[in-house]
Amino acid sequence: MRVSILDLGSNSFRLLVADVAADGAIHPVLRAREFIHLGSEVAATGSLADDVIERAVGAVGHLAGLGLRAGAERSMAVATSAIRDASNSTEVVARLQEVAGIPVRVIDGQEEARLGFLGVASSIALPEGAHLVLDLGGGSLELAVGSGTELLWAESTDLGVSRLWAEYVTGDPLNDRAIAGLQKRVRSTLQPLVAQVRRLDPQWCVSIGGPSRALIQMALRTAATWQPATLNQAWVTAAGLTALRDQLVSMPLEERRAMPGMKSSRVEQIPTAAVIVSTMLDLLEIDRTVVSYWGLREGAILDTYGDAALAFGRQLRPAAVSRMERRFSPHSVHNTHVGGLAASLFDQLADVHQLDPAAADLLAAAAQLHTIGMGVGFRGYHRHGAYLIENSELRGFGPSEIAVLASVVRFHRRGIVGSDYPPFETLDAEQQLWVRGLAAILALADAADRGLDQAVEGIDLTVSNGEVVASFRGVDPELRQDWVESAEAAFRQVFDVGLSLEGVRVIDSF
Known about the structure:
By secondary structure, the protein is α/β, with parallel strands linked by helices. It is 49% helix and 19% strand. The strands form 4 sheets. A 6-stranded mixed β-sheet has the order 8-7-6-9-11-10, sandwiched between helices. Strand 6 (130-136) and strand 7 (141-147) form a beta hairpin. Helix 20 (429-448) packs antiparallel against helix 21. The longest helix has 25 residues, at 176-200. The two termini are 51 Å apart.
């Protein structure tokens, strides 16, 4: 079923059109937005002027029309802080409903926090325990603490970026008085809530909302030459955001406009957002936060149309990998068999590779996805597969994990990793070691099922005197001489051991 949602926020109006699958998962097919900046207008006057209402009506008409043209069978609309706080809210909602052709539900801060938390739980692979979600928008800041998909506590405040910008900012760049006023306002508003947050002992802090995402994107995109298509589940330190704040508040608008990753729609208010976020993290004693690209819109769709058994937490990653495999790979049985062989090799080589056990999960995902490039074309399928992973939205995986997966799939055929591959270059030394080890293991497992017939039942390893002997059970596979030499070189390079193959027919390279 294809559905659409209009999110009528304080900074922007956004449209999401998505397909809701039988398993309750949602697959976005269209996103669009129009910046209206209602929050600053309501903060300054308490209501929305006629010309602002007309802009809002035009934006809703355009976005609602896009949703219909995209084939949405069902539609919904929610309005948040600016519209609910405007003194002429009833009039505004009536106009927007008329042009949208559907009811506009004005939600309170508690509901906004709940839906945002649900979106996060379905986008981030949260470990067990409680987690804090900070949803910073134009008109309000919602704090929510929950576990799994259960909301434990939520609070809505008036610390919206547009609202505080209108109240405190009188010039550009920000002067010391404005910065001090913003910090005092954030601290005085949040201080009574600190004890409640700490009582629930959240393990992770997740940031959502346009202003927070924009800041985190800027902080991260200056730190690396390569990034995947989405920074979902990327971590940024509070110190990094504070450094970015100091840079932003000292720069005039035109200099900010030229910064990498700066969006023209946010250039005016982004220093205010930076002060709010840095002060908030400092007060809550949070040293780092992770960003979620899903929030209220996705949460509202899942809440209305999604399945109650939707994957979240530990289930999120394997569910996302399985969906991608079903979409692109013609060899699911082969992938499963290779995954089993690879897992066995990983366990048998534990004393040799000494990799973190967490690497085993990424090896399993890479094995399941190593043939997805065949959905594009057979020749160079390893490169196609890596490209698909780089540009996918694999929920539950952070950018560095995407880089590991893409690198292992890119180099799984021979197990020797090219060090100039951009995703590989961005990884730290330990993660690069993971890639080299996992690629060598996957290469051996994949070669065992070269005939796609699962005739090799298993691979037994013995390790002694700096040599790994691999004995193949079942049909003896035929392996090309040049591949055998590459595998031996990979094991020597990565594990500092030799590799001998038994139960294998080595044939000359043609």
